[in-house]
Amino acid sequence: MVAPLLHWLYFPKRSAKTPSQRTTVPLHLVLIVPFVLLSTGAVGIVGYLSWRSGQRAISDVVEQLQAKIGDHIEEKLTVYLETPHLINRINADAVQRGELNVTSRTSERYLWQQIQRFESVSWIYYGSEQEGSFVGITRANPDRSLQIVVNDATTNFEGHYYTVDSQGNRQQRVQVISSIYDARSRPWYQTAVQKRQASWSEIYQTFELPSLIISAALPLYNTSGDVLGVVGADLDLEDISHFLASLEISPSGQAFIVERSGQLVASSASETPYRFNERLRQPQRLLAIESTDRLIQSAARHLNQQFGSLDSILGEQQLDFYLSGQRQFLRVLPFRDRRGIDWLIVVVVPESDFIAQIYAQRRTTIVLCTLALLGTIALGLWMSRWISYPIQQLSQASGLLAQGDWHEPLNEDSPITELQVLTHSFNYTATQLQQSFCRVRTALEESQEKFTDSEARFRHAFHDAPIGMALIGLDDRWLQVNPMLCDMLGYPETELLTMTASTLVHPDDLSKLNHNIQQLSQSDDRNAQVELRYCCQDGRVAWGRLSLSLVRDVEDCPCYYVAQIQDITEQHAIDRMKNEFISIVSHELRTPLTAIRGFLGLLDTGIYDNKPDKAKHMITQALTNSDRLVRLVNDILELERQSSGRVQWVMEVCQAATLINQAIAGMQSIADEALINLVVSSATGSVWAAPDAMIQTLTNLLSNAIKFSPPHSIITLSAQPHLNHVLFQVKDQGRGIPDDKLEMIFERFQQVDVSDARQKGGTGLGLAICQSIIHQHGGKIWVESHIGVGSTFYFTIPSSPSSL
């Protein structure tokens, strides 16, 4: 009933717990725990910051290392991959000058001189468009010695390999490739001709060794734009792997280069970027995720998971991932040139290569923290013992003093000044208290008898009060309730005392209650009164007039509330019914009376003296309204008579068929006049009821059905026995009732259309009378309806005892 929040705002909070019920902490813990927490926290924070600083330092060092290695690889690749194109431009000029062709021995010496100047390439060659002839020089044999290679008409387009002397002249033929070779069919040739500019071929297999190479090719054209041939130079990818392996990354770090397809180009691991297929007798490219090196494999998988596709990596990326619980730093650097190279340079460095020193520092930090913690605990225990022992003596003495058993004063010789003063004050206070106890004990014994008599009178008046009374704490709890309040709210006393008072107030009335409480606490008013709705245990809502008083102590501090709650539910119901009845009846009476007064006034003026037909019509209308008033008064009296309980029904066994036939007989003439057929579909079973009341109910339902049914329609009546009752039905083919009116039409003066009272002559009480009769017989009544189809009224009456 009293919101706790208001008490926190207006009254000081008081604890209801006694010292023995509160949670207590020993003094030595109060003294030692802060030392331990502060020391542990300080050392822990320092250790954590040191650890985080070390990790950040590692990250910075690794990022710098990876950036440096990535830049070094990029610079090396730039120079490495530019060399073949430089050779091609030089050779293109040589072809234009006639120094290089496929038939001259001078061309072979020219190529021999050139390959010695550029040791990074494994092939330098020229392929002619005429017949696909080819001349080149290579060091791509196992001993890396130079050999001249010729494929032309003189060799029947077979590959002839010749050793060379110190002057670059062709010597002994050491190998013949028996397959027909046409330079125009090779990937490097076709790529250059197709792109019509300097370009790179796809990575492909060499004829001599199971290795992979990439060719730089430059197409040559005459003045007419016809292809003369293609000059080219090859790079062995294994040279790039050797370069990557020579880099000082970290003890476990790896660097590798992949194409956007995910295939390895080169790596620093001790593996080739291809697998030799024994069945096909040729090498096959290796995907990075298939690498035998676990670090390279995991890094490639992480890139695929992170970006979905390597094509999505557009710029330099710094990432990390975990492998077997260890953090790995990953840096990706795209590498492109204008001739078609689009690779990714990847550098992977495990954090574990740099974290050994961090682990050593962490172990040192843990040892120092442990020593500091143990020292703090030992110091704290000693200090707490030294400080708390005299205080414990004071605590024990105060307990004995409270029990009245303290007699000996405490020793005031303490090394701590504050404790010495405190002990002296305690001894002096204890002496004064003992003297006061004696005086208070005498006064209490004298007042005890007076208080006992007053308390008995209060309890008697509280318990036997004719209205609800209660004591309510400042925390909104019931402290004490009398039986009258329990009866009003429907709760037993034990359950009510476990609840808060405000939970029983209707939610819509809480604002009124809180306003009164605020007014009572902030003003000098001793009493506040308000009418509230209370939610009872059985679900009903009871009205109560609450008179609330605030009890204060001698210091004017609030203690509790005294509440008086008078049950005014019945008074509210009577007032509501009276107002409703007066409003409706005055309206229903005023309408026909006004019409009758108007008709009689017109006749009194004499204007219709010479118009007998008009005068007769006026008199007919006045009689009709008079009949309506009579019906209204009769229905009101009948409904009031039933509601008051003064009707004594004479119950007997009635046959359902007999009741229906008698009701039809009484309404047949009205039905014939309205051109409506009354039909009984089936009528079986017997009921225990007052026959006149049942006929009145059926007659009212038939009257309504006839009023709202169109001519030549059918009204069907039926009665069917069920388990312990008989179900009656009255079904018409009228206009129907809207869904939102189905419950309302059984209330007093309620009609589907307000014009029905004037057009159909109804009073709006017929269905209310039917409902009252059925309920007093222990039955139920309801209606089902569909607009434009019709309505069916149902009601049940208990079966006769003989039929059960």
TrEMBL record:
It is a multi-pass membrane protein. Residues 528-580 form the PAC domain. Keywords: ATP-binding, Cell membrane, Kinase, Membrane, Nucleotide-binding, Phosphoprotein, Transferase, Transmembrane, Transmembrane helix, Two-component regulatory system. It is an enzyme of class 2 (transferase). One of its GO terms (biological process) is osmosensory signaling via phosphorelay pathway. GO terms for cellular component: plasma membrane. The chain crosses the membrane at residues 27-49, 365-383. Residues 385-438 form the HAMP domain. InterPro entries: BphY/WalK/GraS-like (IPR050351), dCache_1 (IPR033479), HAMP_dom (IPR003660), HATPase_C_sf (IPR036890), HATPase_dom (IPR003594), His_kinase_dom (IPR005467), HisK_dim/P_dom (IPR003661), HisK_dim/P_sf (IPR036097). Its main location: membrane. Gene3D superfamilies: 1.10.287.130, 6.10.340.10, Histidine kinase-like ATPase, C-terminal domain, PAS domain. Its EC number is 2.7.13.3. Residues 454-524 form the PAS domain. One of its GO terms (molecular function) is ATP binding. It is found in: Cell membrane. Residues 584-801 form the Histidine kinase domain. PANTHER family: SENSOR HISTIDINE KINASE GLRK, TWO-COMPONENT HISTIDINE KINASE. This is histidine kinase.
